Predict the structure of FAD binding domain-containing protein.
Amino acid sequence: MDLNTVLEVRDARQLASWRTGDAWLGGGTYLFSEPQPHLRRLVDLSRMGWEPVAQLPDGSLEIAATCTIAQLSRFAARFPAPAAPLFEQCCRAFLASFKIWNMATVGGNLCNGLPAGPMISLTAALDGSALLQAQDGSRRRTKVADFITGAGRKDLGEGELLRSVTLPARALTCRTAFRQVSLYGLGRSGALVIGALDPLDGSLAITVTAATVRPIRLWFPTPPGAAVLRGTLDAAVAGPEWFDDIHGLPAWRRHMALRLAEEVRAELAPHPSSPEEAAR
């Protein structure tokens, strides 16, 4: 779609000052998908030269905001970490054409803040932290699970830039389980649940997205029983936080999130030794 209110496109390397009507341009798959009458200038990040994905000396993984879905998928295919299959599963959750895969960016998906954003699902489930840079050059970090505050809402100031997302080394060693459901065969995610079992201490993190307006990440020191998981998830999500749109009613999303969370728990948790332990 043509953005006929945009008067200028500037290279982000040469930007002098931020002003009202500016927007960061990554892949542009969202910006050019619908009218943006408030925009006057796009600040293009495509020439920043950031390495798409880099493994840091401490073993953590830094994903640049400009990393495309195709680049992340190619990296994951040769990445030997136990959590690597989750990357491809979340990339596939886009259900998008190769054109979108080669243009859409990780940063753009996070900054849209949509409940069904699969890069939000991936990075929140692996305890990712977002690096944000203000116009004065100052930087801060926030957990991805806290960065998204609601449907389309995020903890991002005026002119603030999402520079990258870092996934800790320990999270990359986790065994993961992935479940996704949609109302349609090739539809937007109605509920997406990811489990991550830590091999070091046996703790279990279960993250719910798409069904809720923001990521819900639950952490258990040991894998819980079915009843505890259900009660904890129900208590963690207030009624209005179950998302409501054309892709699923809140009651259906809650039902599916609870069902998928139990499937994830059962896949990752050690088999209980008795029926009583299974119920706890």
